[in-house]
Amino acid sequence: MKIRKILICMLAVCLLSTCFAGCNRDDGGNNTVINDGKTINIRTNNQGLGYAYVEAMCNQFNETFADDGYRANLLAPIEGMGEQYIYQDIYQGNSGVDIYIASADMKGGVDGDYNDKGPLFEDITNSVYKQKPIKFDKSEESETVEEKLDGLTFLNSYGGKYYGLPYVLNIFGLAVNKKLLDGYGLQLPKTTKEYAHCIEEIMKKAYTTNVFPFTYSVGDNNYSLNYVNLWMAQYGGIEEYDVFWSMENPVGTKLDNPADVFNHASIKPMLEDFIRIFDYNTAAFGAETQTYKDAQKQLYRGEAVFYTSGDWLYNEEKTRNASYLNDVVFIRTPMISALGTKLFGAGTSYGFDEDKCESVLREIIDGADANKSVDDITAQVNAKLSVSLDKADVKTVCERRGYACCNNSLQSVAVVSSKSQVKDLCALFLRMWTSDEGASLIANTFNSCNPFNLSALSDSQIEWCRSTADIMSNRYFRQLVGIANGYRRENAAIYNVFTLTGLRVHSYVLSNHRVTMYQDNTYNKTGNDSVYKNAAATMAEAIYAHAKNYSTLR
What we know:
There is one protein chain. The chain is α/β, with parallel strands linked by helices. It has a domain at 2-169 and 410-453: Periplasmic binding protein-like II (D-Maltodextrin-Binding Protein, domain 2), CATH 3.40.190. A five-stranded mixed sheet has the order 2-1-3-12-6. Strands 8-9-7-10 form a four-stranded mixed sheet. It is globular, with a radius of gyration of 24 Å. Residues 1-27 have low confidence and may be disordered.
């Protein structure tokens, strides 16, 4: 079953997951490369959530293949080791490293600036992807690695071949201090209108409580892209979203006018809700300058109710804010309410008013979150609300509710150096890494919320872990990655020139368009929704005008 494959493949797609990236040793670690024909030398970067699982996996490999004399030699991690370091290290060819675990672009490793002597990365299509994972007793599982990944490999291939093994599929969502939210008598929001209602209710008391709807770190991470990408995709659909990020037609040909992607109808409604949320007057003190650790502390310790982040947040805070862990939960990002109006409002055959559209949308979302079928949801909503919805429209809502933005470090991979003298052993190591037992190992070794072992997550006493498993096990779950590709990726000028979009949207909103309906001294509400509607319309026009200035770059 495909859903099962997607979930189980997290142990491969997340395989090395966030848990790998980073060792925080104080002793400098091991830097002795062993070249005896039976040892794999492995290098990781020094960032992320942990190092224990890499060590545990190496230890398990050494135990499994002790009789064969094979060993995994884990070298000390390197701070910020990225793709340029890897490219240069392999190109120079004298480090002795066999496997690198970090972020790397497959095209750059196969057909980039350092490839005058051939690919830097070893083709692992046949040696890993077409093979079956290896259990700890050396026996094989029933499916191949490629089958377990089930389509979640597109960032790790180039020219029809696989050069890297993905290990990240962390999803973005909304971290909520539920203890605080309950104190306001509010429910967890499932739509942006419900989200907006929460903002208003929290702001009514902000002057006396100093508790605000949001916290975030403007310069320390790009988590706000969760809103940009998700709401655009939910409103416009995955096809339009793919065109936006590729600037190509669905058949793969360049658009006649690439800048037109910034005139899509999905941009304005996204901006309207985005501007409403990224408002300094509704954010906890210090949001302009603080680190992500400060923002997370504000969430856990009760200065803010909402923080957009990912399922990895629990890992980062498990020790630091242990006494507050049960106050915070992880939920799907609220769905854009404008989709309800688009599908069911004025101008459609239904002709519902906005309140009715919101009610219909909310009921469908409830059914989708409960993992019900489209047929069952349609019947239940029709009966409960006395409407007659077309199943196709219900299906649209369900599918788009299932969209989940994935951390763009999905590009993070384990790659085998083309200079390695033990490529067969490297393949054995990666195949063991993709086994079901690898999932159990990570669950037992690392404080992971990622579904390498779904049953462990589902049975957890921690609601955060259970909700993560619930989101990823939902039949409508679909990864959504916001990474430039196609023509947009190949044309460096177009990739970089749209300064009002992509990674810079949130900075643009916060720095140049500080739109608010709340006074900055009393936090009283002084305007209405038209404030955000007008600002969104103006900004959408500015973005498109800016993009058209570069149309000559086609």
